[in-house]
């Protein structure tokens, strides 16, 4: 949370991934930042200890390089959230990125970190978090999963596990639920063929499915390396609805592989796709 440089008002965002639990494991429920560092820094939270460290060698690096470098430097059991060049340059649509594409978008919070010369926050700690009533927590978990299994149709548990949100853009474009041609078009007229935005197209090059920390849905998809015109790397995240809309329907673009590539680039540089 911060004052949004995009709106001048309240700004907040969140993301999936593993960083949130690791922040808790490190011994902290929340961290507040004030002021501006004299040089680029990152915050390392390690089992109840907090240290600002030099991040000059990370400044200018993309989110993926930053994440990998910190994990190599700090060792096992570390998760981090960071900004890319867009946040460093104070772009109003910059994000905070973790786990190669779990993104806290909207509000321009990447620019807030960039303005403070804060490149990243890394966390490590003991993954044992005591709860007051473990039995009730376990029952709550079971009840929640049972309720999710009752979801039907496009919102079924099986559908979200298979496609994430990538299966909605194709139909939404023709129903009017998704903007077309920079808000000036009509899907059935301006994008009569949008099969490249289907859920099946989005997972055509799928390598594996995974998920955020202990999530019962597991909707995250990772792709094989792009082999055609758009050579995105193996491990690129499968496109979600927002990227389908911004670079698909809004641009009248139904080329699945181009969407995979732009999704990779935006995640890499820390840019919001909404």
UniProtKB/TrEMBL annotation:
<dbReference type="Pfam" id="PF02730">
    <property type="entry name" value="AFOR_N"/>
</dbReference>
<dbReference type="GO" id="GO:0051539">
    <property type="term" value="F:4 iron, 4 sulfur cluster binding"/>
</dbReference>
<dbReference type="Pfam" id="PF01314">
    <property type="entry name" value="AFOR_C"/>
</dbReference>
<dbReference type="GO" id="GO:0009055">
    <property type="term" value="F:electron transfer activity"/>
</dbReference>
<dbReference type="InterPro" id="IPR013983">
    <property type="entry name" value="Ald_Fedxn_OxRdtase_N"/>
</dbReference>
<keyword id="KW-0004">4Fe-4S</keyword>
<dbReference type="InterPro" id="IPR036503">
    <property type="entry name" value="Ald_Fedxn_OxRdtase_N_sf"/>
</dbReference>
<dbReference type="InterPro" id="IPR051919">
    <property type="entry name" value="W-dependent_AOR"/>
</dbReference>
<dbReference type="InterPro" id="IPR036021">
    <property type="entry name" value="Tungsten_al_ferr_oxy-like_C"/>
</dbReference>
<dbReference type="InterPro" id="IPR001203">
    <property type="entry name" value="OxRdtase_Ald_Fedxn_C"/>
</dbReference>
<dbReference type="GO" id="GO:0016625">
    <property type="term" value="F:oxidoreductase activity, acting on the aldehyde or oxo group of donors, iron-sulfur protein as acceptor"/>
</dbReference>
<comment type="similarity">
    <text>Belongs to the AOR/FOR family.</text>
</comment>
<feature type="domain" description="Aldehyde ferredoxin oxidoreductase N-terminal">
    <location>
        <begin position="1"/>
        <end position="127"/>
    </location>
</feature>
<keyword id="KW-0411">Iron-sulfur</keyword>
<dbReference type="GO" id="GO:0046872">
    <property type="term" value="F:metal ion binding"/>
</dbReference>
<protein>
    <recommendedName>
        <fullName>Aldehyde ferredoxin oxidoreductase N-terminal domain-containing protein</fullName>
    </recommendedName>
</protein>
<dbReference type="InterPro" id="IPR013984">
    <property type="entry name" value="Ald_Fedxn_OxRdtase_dom2"/>
</dbReference>
<keyword id="KW-0479">Metal-binding</keyword>
<keyword id="KW-0408">Iron</keyword>
């Amino acid at each position: 949370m911060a004052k949004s440089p995009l709106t001048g008002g309240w700004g907040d965002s969140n993301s999936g991934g593993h960083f949130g639990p690791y922040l808790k494991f490190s011994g902290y429920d929340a961290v507040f930042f004030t002021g501006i560092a004299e040089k680029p820094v990152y915050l390392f939270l390690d089992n109840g200890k907090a240290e600002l460290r030099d991040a000059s060698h990370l400044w200018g690096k993309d989110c993926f390089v930053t994440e990998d470098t910190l994990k190599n430097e700090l060792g096992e059991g570390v998760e981090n959230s960071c900004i890319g060049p867009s946040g460093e340059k104070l772009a109003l649509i910059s994000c905070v990125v973790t786990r190669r594409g779990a993104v806290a978008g909207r509000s321009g919070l990447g620019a807030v970190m960039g303005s403070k010369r804060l490149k990243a926050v890394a966390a490590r700690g003991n993954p044992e978090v005591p709860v007051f009533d473990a039995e009730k927590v376990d029952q709550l978990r079971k009840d929640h999963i049972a309720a999710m299994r009752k979801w039907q149709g496009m919102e079924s548990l099986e559908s979200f596990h298979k496609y994430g949100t990538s299966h909605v853009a194709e139909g939404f474009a023709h129903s009017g639920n998704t903007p077309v041609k920079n808000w000036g078009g009509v899907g059935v007229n301006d994008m009569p063929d949008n099969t490249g935005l289907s859920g099946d197209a989005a997972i055509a090059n799928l390598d594996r499915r995974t998920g955020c920390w202990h999530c019962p849905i597991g909707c995250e998809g990772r792709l094989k390396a792009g082999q055609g015109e758009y050579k995105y790397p193996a491990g690129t995240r499968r496109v979600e609805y927002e990227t389908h809309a911004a670079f698909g329907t809004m641009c009248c673009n139904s080329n699945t592989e181009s969407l995979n590539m732009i999704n990779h680039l935006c995640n890499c540089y820390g840019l919001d796709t909404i």
